[in-house]
């Protein structure tokens, strides 16, 4: 069932509109249903700290943004959010933070992993999203219970990568690629992704991003529209951007083409979609996505984890978020995979 597409064909699909686009989106939905079914899996997202040692030019919580109030949620707060996920049968959580690599940080995450496994009687699945680390750190965290890891490549074209990151030792493209290989070696289900609609990004770049995912044989993908943030260097190029609606539509096309290229991977309906269209994530579920990450970050911290403008759900508490989500997911025609890890079928298929 897997479809091979070359760069030219992918580029054309990404540009498609009207009838062709409707065909593309429908085809992706059919392929998704056949390959992974119509279940949607929840990952309760806990953004446990916005302290970051890096300076990505697009990101609102970059180190040099002095306007951000930095926070570090307490272990109790983090574990309480995970307990909420467990009690509400979410199946899995994602721990995300700014990028740090000090021994204290590595140990803290390690302790949290053990704490989450303990409080949920080993039931909660755990995804980490804590940036580039050494192979040893990845291995240590894997042994303590994390089994999936998200590390977006952000842009697979090296030149574009350096247009959106400082050209410094701390932001090397090669190191990021290496980190993705380390994750595979350590045994994780590996997730990556890109931002869509970046300044300087072409349709060909996006086609290459999809071919990069295929070449890396990834298990999971999270990608969403780039959304400008005023307190970042990339904001100066906002005149180069497509409209938000165009970025949104392009993001849906990217999800659909990826589903056609890699039928059995997990694809997340990125939160950034919802920043443009209130029903953005549900629309993504209809064209290929099968994972949603409800925000469980303690409310007081949410306004300090603004990676981009108009980030949604800033003042809803987790419970509310879940109720509105449930209704909207059912409206989108999907079923929620309660209490399931919802592992990547692609990962399972590779193993067997
Ligand atoms: N717009 C959209 N996505 C962003 N991210 C960071 N900054 C932005 C932005 N301005 C995404 C990155 C990162 C993920 C956690 O959030 O892709 O990997
Ligand atoms: Fe924190 Fe990019 S700014 S990792």
The description of the largest β-sheet is: 10 strands, parallel
Strand content: 5-15%
Report the helical percentage.
40-55%
Number of strands: 10
What does the radius of gyration come to? 19 Å
GO molecular function: 4 iron, 4 sulfur cluster binding; metal ion binding; transferase activity
Cofactor: [2Fe-2S] cluster; [4Fe-4S] cluster
Pfam family, one: Radical_SAM
Binding site for (3R)-3-methyl-D-ornithine: 129
In short:
This protein has 14 helices and ten strands. It is of the alpha/beta class and 352 residues long. S-adenosyl-L-methionine binds at residues 154, 176.
How is this fold's topology laid out?
Blueprint: H1 7-15, H2 18-36, E1 39-49, H3 75-87, E2 92-97, H4 103-119, E3 125-129, H5 135-143, E4 148-150, H6 158-164, H7 173-186, E5 189-192, E6 195-196, H8 203-216, E7 220-225, H9 244-261, E8 266-269, H10 271-276, H11 280-285, E9 291-292, H12 299-302, H13 318-331, E10 335-336, H14 345-351
Parallel strand pairs: 1-2, 1-9, 1-10, 2-3, 3-4, 4-5, 5-7, 6-7, 7-8
Helix pairs in contact: 1-8, 1-9, 2-9, 3-4, 5-7
Structure description:
It is globular and about 50 Å long. The two termini are 18 Å apart. The protein is of the alpha/beta class. The chain has helices at 7-15, 18-36, 75-87, 103-119, 135-143, 158-164, 173-186, 203-216, 244-261, 271-276, 280-285, 299-302, 318-331, 345-351, and strands at 39-49, 92-97, 125-129, 148-150, 189-192, 195-196, 220-225, 266-269, 291-292, 335-336. It is built from 14 helices and 10 strands. It has a single domain (7-351), classed as TIM Barrel. 45% of the residues lie in helices and 13% in strands. The structure holds 5'-deoxyadenosine (5AD) and FE2/S2 (inorganic) cluster. Residues 58-59, 152, 154, 195, 224, 226-227, 229, 272, 307-308 line the site of 5'-deoxyadenosine.
